[in-house]
Amino acid sequence: MTSLWKLSFTVPYEATETFSDVLEAAIWPEVLAVSTTEAEPGSSPLVKTASEWNEVEAHGLWRVEALYAEEPEEDAVRELIARAETQAGAKAEGVHVDPVPDEDWVTRSLEGLEPVRAGRFFVYGSHDAEKVPAGAIPLLVDAGQAFGTGHHETTAGCLEYVSELVRPGVPLNVLDIGTGTGVLAIAVTKLARVNVLASDIDPVAVEVTKANAKANGVGPFITALTAKGFGHPDLRARAPYDLIIANILARPLVSLAPAFRAHLRPGGTLILSGTLRTQENMVAGAMRMQGLKLVSRRPKGDWVTLRMEA
Predict the structure, then answer these.
(1) Alpha-carbon distance values, 239 to 4, 195, 255, 306 (Å)
(2) N or C, which end of the chain is more exposed by having fewer CB within 10 Å?
(3) Model's pTM, two decimal places?
(4) Domains in the chain, start-ordered, CATH in brackets?
Protein backbone atom coordinates (compact mmCIF):
# COMPACT_ATOMS: atom_id res chain seq x y z
CA MET A 1 0.00 0.00 0.00
CA THR A 2 1.31 3.46 -0.93
CA SER A 3 0.24 6.61 0.90
CA LEU A 4 3.12 8.94 0.05
CA TRP A 5 4.61 10.14 -3.24
CA LYS A 6 7.99 11.76 -3.73
CA LEU A 7 8.98 14.30 -6.38
CA SER A 8 12.75 14.38 -6.87
CA PHE A 9 15.20 16.31 -9.09
CA THR A 10 18.60 18.02 -8.99
CA VAL A 11 19.50 21.68 -9.45
CA PRO A 12 22.59 23.86 -8.90
CA TYR A 13 23.07 24.74 -5.23
CA GLU A 14 22.25 28.42 -5.68
CA ALA A 15 18.84 27.51 -7.15
CA THR A 16 17.70 25.18 -4.34
CA GLU A 17 15.99 27.87 -2.26
CA THR A 18 13.96 29.13 -5.21
CA PHE A 19 12.76 25.65 -6.17
CA SER A 20 11.95 24.82 -2.54
CA ASP A 21 9.99 28.06 -2.11
CA VAL A 22 7.93 27.44 -5.26
CA LEU A 23 7.04 23.89 -4.17
CA GLU A 24 6.14 24.98 -0.64
CA ALA A 25 4.03 27.94 -1.81
CA ALA A 26 1.94 25.92 -4.27
CA ILE A 27 -1.70 25.52 -3.30
CA TRP A 28 -1.91 22.49 -5.58
CA PRO A 29 -0.37 20.02 -5.38
CA GLU A 30 -0.10 20.64 -1.64
CA VAL A 31 3.28 19.51 -0.36
CA LEU A 32 3.84 17.79 2.99
CA ALA A 33 7.57 18.51 3.23
CA VAL A 34 10.49 19.68 1.10
CA SER A 35 14.10 18.68 1.71
CA THR A 36 17.41 19.50 0.02
CA THR A 37 20.59 17.43 0.17
CA GLU A 38 23.94 17.55 -1.59
CA ALA A 39 24.00 15.33 -4.68
CA GLU A 40 27.39 16.18 -6.21
CA PRO A 41 30.03 18.28 -4.41
CA GLY A 42 31.21 21.37 -6.24
CA SER A 43 34.81 21.54 -7.42
CA SER A 44 35.06 25.10 -8.73
CA PRO A 45 36.46 27.86 -6.49
CA LEU A 46 34.17 30.25 -4.64
CA VAL A 47 33.14 33.25 -6.71
CA LYS A 48 33.90 36.68 -5.27
CA THR A 49 31.07 39.19 -5.58
CA ALA A 50 30.92 42.95 -5.11
CA SER A 51 30.81 42.56 -1.34
CA GLU A 52 34.10 41.51 0.20
CA TRP A 53 32.58 38.67 2.22
CA ASN A 54 29.48 37.80 0.25
CA GLU A 55 30.80 34.93 -1.82
CA VAL A 56 28.77 32.39 -3.76
CA GLU A 57 28.99 28.93 -2.25
CA ALA A 58 30.09 26.36 -4.83
CA HIS A 59 28.24 23.24 -3.68
CA GLY A 60 27.69 21.68 -7.10
CA LEU A 61 24.36 19.91 -7.63
CA TRP A 62 21.77 19.47 -4.88
CA ARG A 63 18.81 17.13 -4.80
CA VAL A 64 15.39 18.59 -4.04
CA GLU A 65 12.72 16.17 -2.77
CA ALA A 66 9.07 16.92 -2.05
CA LEU A 67 6.60 14.60 -0.32
CA TYR A 68 2.90 14.46 -1.22
CA ALA A 69 -0.03 12.62 0.37
CA GLU A 70 -1.29 11.60 -3.07
CA GLU A 71 0.23 11.33 -6.51
CA PRO A 72 0.70 14.84 -7.97
CA GLU A 73 -0.61 15.35 -11.50
CA GLU A 74 2.06 15.41 -14.18
CA ASP A 75 0.84 18.71 -15.67
CA ALA A 76 0.84 20.39 -12.26
CA VAL A 77 4.38 19.22 -11.51
CA ARG A 78 5.56 20.37 -14.94
CA GLU A 79 4.04 23.82 -14.37
CA LEU A 80 5.67 24.19 -10.93
CA ILE A 81 9.08 23.14 -12.22
CA ALA A 82 8.83 25.54 -15.17
CA ARG A 83 7.88 28.40 -12.84
CA ALA A 84 10.85 27.69 -10.57
CA GLU A 85 13.22 27.39 -13.53
CA THR A 86 12.14 30.82 -14.76
CA GLN A 87 12.61 32.42 -11.35
CA ALA A 88 15.94 30.73 -10.64
CA GLY A 89 17.40 30.91 -14.13
CA ALA A 90 18.41 27.26 -13.79
CA LYS A 91 17.15 23.93 -15.11
CA ALA A 92 15.96 20.99 -13.02
CA GLU A 93 17.44 17.66 -14.09
CA GLY A 94 16.16 14.12 -13.56
CA VAL A 95 12.63 15.11 -12.56
CA HIS A 96 10.58 12.09 -11.52
CA VAL A 97 7.76 11.11 -9.16
CA ASP A 98 7.91 7.81 -7.26
CA PRO A 99 5.67 6.07 -4.72
CA VAL A 100 6.99 5.70 -1.19
CA PRO A 101 5.61 2.47 0.34
CA ASP A 102 4.45 2.72 3.95
CA GLU A 103 6.58 -0.18 5.08
CA ASP A 104 9.75 1.43 3.70
CA TRP A 105 9.33 4.90 5.17
CA VAL A 106 10.57 4.34 8.72
CA THR A 107 13.26 1.95 7.50
CA ARG A 108 14.50 4.51 5.02
CA SER A 109 14.74 7.20 7.68
CA LEU A 110 16.87 4.94 9.88
CA GLU A 111 19.01 3.05 7.38
CA GLY A 112 22.74 3.62 7.68
CA LEU A 113 22.46 5.66 10.87
CA GLU A 114 24.72 3.84 13.25
CA PRO A 115 25.31 5.34 16.72
CA VAL A 116 27.94 8.11 16.85
CA ARG A 117 30.48 8.84 19.60
CA ALA A 118 31.44 12.53 19.76
CA GLY A 119 33.48 13.57 22.78
CA ARG A 120 31.62 12.44 25.90
CA PHE A 121 28.39 12.05 23.95
CA PHE A 122 26.80 8.99 22.38
CA VAL A 123 24.19 9.87 19.75
CA TYR A 124 21.79 7.05 18.94
CA GLY A 125 18.34 6.27 17.59
CA SER A 126 15.67 4.49 19.60
CA HIS A 127 16.40 1.34 17.58
CA ASP A 128 19.93 1.27 19.12
CA ALA A 129 19.03 1.97 22.76
CA GLU A 130 20.78 -1.19 23.92
CA LYS A 131 24.12 0.02 22.49
CA VAL A 132 24.65 2.99 24.83
CA PRO A 133 28.05 2.40 26.52
CA ALA A 134 28.60 2.88 30.23
CA GLY A 135 29.96 6.31 31.10
CA ALA A 136 28.78 8.02 27.92
CA ILE A 137 26.24 10.84 27.92
CA PRO A 138 23.34 9.51 25.82
CA LEU A 139 21.64 11.71 23.23
CA LEU A 140 18.52 10.10 21.77
CA VAL A 141 17.87 11.55 18.32
CA ASP A 142 15.89 9.63 15.72
CA ALA A 143 16.28 10.46 12.04
CA GLY A 144 13.37 12.59 10.97
CA GLN A 145 12.27 15.91 9.53
CA ALA A 146 15.08 18.11 10.82
CA PHE A 147 18.84 18.29 10.27
CA GLY A 148 21.30 17.30 12.97
CA THR A 149 21.44 13.68 14.08
CA GLY A 150 25.15 13.84 14.95
CA HIS A 151 26.14 11.86 11.87
CA HIS A 152 27.16 14.86 9.81
CA GLU A 153 30.70 16.21 10.32
CA THR A 154 29.40 19.66 11.26
CA THR A 155 27.19 18.40 14.08
CA ALA A 156 29.87 16.02 15.35
CA GLY A 157 32.43 18.85 15.40
CA CYS A 158 30.11 21.03 17.47
CA LEU A 159 29.41 18.18 19.89
CA GLU A 160 33.13 17.66 20.43
CA TYR A 161 33.62 21.33 21.27
CA VAL A 162 30.63 21.26 23.64
CA SER A 163 32.13 18.19 25.30
CA GLU A 164 35.40 20.06 25.87
CA LEU A 165 34.09 23.47 26.87
CA VAL A 166 30.93 22.94 28.93
CA ARG A 167 31.48 21.98 32.55
CA PRO A 168 28.91 20.53 34.99
CA GLY A 169 27.73 23.04 37.55
CA VAL A 170 29.14 26.07 35.74
CA PRO A 171 26.37 28.60 34.96
CA LEU A 172 26.10 29.45 31.27
CA ASN A 173 23.77 31.57 29.18
CA VAL A 174 23.59 29.59 25.92
CA LEU A 175 22.04 30.15 22.50
CA ASP A 176 21.83 27.46 19.80
CA ILE A 177 21.05 29.03 16.39
CA GLY A 178 19.90 26.69 13.62
CA THR A 179 19.12 24.04 16.21
CA GLY A 180 17.75 21.43 13.74
CA THR A 181 16.91 18.42 15.90
CA GLY A 182 18.02 20.24 19.06
CA VAL A 183 20.89 17.81 19.62
CA LEU A 184 23.43 20.53 20.50
CA ALA A 185 21.09 22.29 22.92
CA ILE A 186 20.28 18.94 24.51
CA ALA A 187 23.99 18.14 24.82
CA VAL A 188 24.70 21.42 26.64
CA THR A 189 21.77 20.88 28.99
CA LYS A 190 22.73 17.30 29.81
CA LEU A 191 26.24 18.43 30.73
CA ALA A 192 25.57 21.63 32.64
CA ARG A 193 21.85 21.41 33.57
CA VAL A 194 21.39 25.00 32.41
CA ASN A 195 18.58 26.61 30.44
CA VAL A 196 19.28 26.87 26.71
CA LEU A 197 17.53 29.01 24.11
CA ALA A 198 17.32 27.18 20.75
CA SER A 199 16.09 28.70 17.48
CA ASP A 200 15.60 27.65 13.89
CA ILE A 201 14.22 29.26 10.76
CA ASP A 202 12.14 26.11 10.17
CA PRO A 203 9.08 25.73 12.44
CA VAL A 204 9.18 21.94 11.89
CA ALA A 205 12.68 21.86 13.38
CA VAL A 206 11.44 23.80 16.39
CA GLU A 207 8.73 21.20 17.05
CA VAL A 208 11.25 18.37 16.54
CA THR A 209 13.58 20.05 19.05
CA LYS A 210 10.82 20.28 21.65
CA ALA A 211 9.95 16.60 21.17
CA ASN A 212 13.60 15.51 21.36
CA ALA A 213 14.22 17.59 24.47
CA LYS A 214 11.28 15.89 26.16
CA ALA A 215 12.44 12.43 25.01
CA ASN A 216 15.86 13.12 26.54
CA GLY A 217 14.38 14.26 29.85
CA VAL A 218 15.48 17.92 29.49
CA GLY A 219 12.29 19.47 28.12
CA PRO A 220 11.96 22.11 30.91
CA PHE A 221 15.50 23.35 30.27
CA ILE A 222 15.14 24.12 26.55
CA THR A 223 13.11 26.93 25.01
CA ALA A 224 12.75 26.45 21.24
CA LEU A 225 11.37 29.13 18.96
CA THR A 226 11.19 30.02 15.27
CA ALA A 227 13.53 32.84 14.27
CA LYS A 228 15.75 34.03 11.44
CA GLY A 229 19.08 35.09 12.86
CA PHE A 230 18.48 37.37 15.84
CA GLY A 231 15.12 38.51 14.49
CA HIS A 232 13.11 37.26 17.47
CA PRO A 233 12.95 39.66 20.46
CA ASP A 234 13.48 36.81 22.94
CA LEU A 235 16.93 36.14 21.44
CA ARG A 236 17.96 39.75 21.92
CA ALA A 237 16.42 39.99 25.39
CA ARG A 238 18.45 37.07 26.76
CA ALA A 239 21.80 38.53 25.60
CA PRO A 240 24.66 38.74 26.28
CA TYR A 241 25.47 35.06 25.87
CA ASP A 242 28.37 33.10 27.33
CA LEU A 243 28.16 30.58 24.49
CA ILE A 244 26.58 30.81 21.05
CA ILE A 245 26.50 27.75 18.78
CA ALA A 246 25.59 28.25 15.12
CA ASN A 247 25.61 25.20 12.86
CA ILE A 248 24.10 26.65 9.69
CA LEU A 249 25.85 27.59 6.41
CA ALA A 250 28.78 29.83 5.53
CA ARG A 251 26.84 32.66 3.88
CA PRO A 252 24.37 33.12 6.78
CA LEU A 253 27.27 32.92 9.25
CA VAL A 254 29.02 35.77 7.46
CA SER A 255 25.89 37.92 7.42
CA LEU A 256 25.38 37.30 11.14
CA ALA A 257 28.93 38.25 12.16
CA PRO A 258 27.99 41.71 13.54
CA ALA A 259 25.05 40.22 15.46
CA PHE A 260 27.24 37.50 16.95
CA ARG A 261 29.63 40.15 18.30
CA ALA A 262 26.79 42.31 19.60
CA HIS A 263 25.11 39.47 21.51
CA LEU A 264 28.20 37.69 22.87
CA ARG A 265 29.58 38.79 26.23
CA PRO A 266 33.26 39.83 26.43
CA GLY A 267 35.27 36.63 26.69
CA GLY A 268 32.33 34.58 25.44
CA THR A 269 32.67 31.63 23.06
CA LEU A 270 31.25 31.23 19.56
CA ILE A 271 31.15 27.78 17.92
CA LEU A 272 30.55 27.95 14.16
CA SER A 273 29.93 25.12 11.72
CA GLY A 274 28.23 24.30 8.46
CA THR A 275 31.35 25.63 6.75
CA LEU A 276 33.31 23.89 4.01
CA ARG A 277 37.10 24.05 4.27
CA THR A 278 37.11 26.19 1.12
CA GLN A 279 34.93 28.72 2.96
CA GLU A 280 36.90 28.80 6.21
CA ASN A 281 38.90 31.95 5.44
CA MET A 282 35.76 33.78 4.37
CA VAL A 283 33.92 32.95 7.61
CA ALA A 284 36.88 33.45 9.96
CA GLY A 285 37.76 36.70 8.22
CA ALA A 286 34.24 38.07 8.64
CA MET A 287 34.39 37.25 12.37
CA ARG A 288 37.82 38.86 12.77
CA MET A 289 36.46 42.06 11.21
CA GLN A 290 34.03 42.18 14.15
CA GLY A 291 36.79 41.77 16.72
CA LEU A 292 36.29 38.03 17.27
CA LYS A 293 39.41 35.92 17.37
CA LEU A 294 39.91 32.36 16.15
CA VAL A 295 40.96 30.11 19.03
CA SER A 296 40.94 26.71 17.31
CA ARG A 297 39.54 24.80 14.36
CA ARG A 298 38.32 21.22 13.95
CA PRO A 299 38.34 19.85 10.38
CA LYS A 300 36.28 16.77 9.53
CA GLY A 301 36.17 15.58 5.95
CA ASP A 302 35.32 18.53 3.70
CA TRP A 303 33.96 20.53 6.64
CA VAL A 304 35.42 22.55 9.48
CA THR A 305 34.10 23.72 12.85
CA LEU A 306 35.54 26.94 14.27
CA ARG A 307 35.87 28.13 17.86
CA MET A 308 35.93 31.91 18.19
CA GLU A 309 36.09 34.17 21.25
CA ALA A 310 34.99 37.74 21.89
Answers:
(1) 43, 13, 19, 21
(2) N
(3) 0.67
(4) 2-108 (3.30.70.1150), 153-309 (3.40.50.150)
